[in-house]
Automatic annotation (TrEMBL):
Role noted for this protein: Specifically dimethylates two adjacent adenosines (A1518 and A1519) in the loop of a conserved hairpin near the 3'-end of 16S rRNA in the 30S particle. May play a critical role in biogenesis of 30S subunits.
Protein name: Ribosomal RNA small subunit methyltransferase A
Limits of the Ribosomal RNA adenine methylase transferase N-terminal domain: 20-189
EC number: 2.1.1.182
GO cellular component terms, semicolon-separated: cytosol
Amino acid sequence: MKPHAPRKRFGQHFLTDDAIIDGIVREIAPRPGDAMVEIGPGLAALTQPLVERLGRLTVVELDRDLAARLRSHPQLTVVEADVLTVDFGVLADTAGQRLRVVGNLPYNISTPILFHLLRFADRIADQHFMLQKEVIDRMVADPATSDYGRLSVMLQWRYAMENVLFVPPESFDPPPRVDSAVVRMVPREAPAALDPALLERLVQLAFSQRRKLLRNTLGRWLDERHFEGRFDVQRRAEEVPVDEYVALAQALPSVS
Ligand SMILES: C[S@@+](CC[C@H](N)C(=O)[O-])C[C@H]1O[C@@H](n2cnc3c(N)ncnc32)[C@H](O)[C@@H]1O
């Protein structure tokens, strides 16, 4: 088979380090019968050891040439599509169980992929993703740190997350310009009576000018919603813990 020339526009950095591949597979801990979906299988560096353990695996690949190669593998179900258009609810219905989602994600669209999957969190058992380490630092950040922001709040309310593996650039071909890491994300039970769209709007506004006090970024918006509860707006967005944002969104009338 002709060697595949990596395509930059698809964020293609292929894993070549066997020790790292083993480490990622160990963290995922695939078991036969798991309903697993891999995003961006590429040249099958993770796909091969995963499917050996699982027996069956669904993969979502946008690159037509790579999808064609993968189709020759009888144990794979290949979905040739942009993952941002994939309905993971339908995949879960087909599997008849909650999904385990994994992937060495294309870094140029990693945040949109995380937000896309957020909608299907109740159909997902867990997620393991390779991402830029800097993005994972922001995902798992604590309040009152410079990494704490919109991404931290919007993911922490819905997932328990941990950084499980550091991955240096030389583990890939071609090497990316940044350090990478693997994050484990396990959906939490959704808090009652929470409109995610409202939480998203609130958090976006709060962090729109992170150096300003919330009085300036949120004050009028809260008044317009006739909010009369307790919420200290004499703070900066980065000082407010996730559960306070959730409680505030729960106390407001829904936007939909
Ligand atoms: C960083 S590479 C990882 C490849 C392989 N899993 C590995 O670890 O060596 C990202 C993969 O995602 C694929 N990809 C890029 N954009 C995509 C999208 N929107 N939907 C699905 N797959 C995509 C790329 O073609 C590539 O195979």
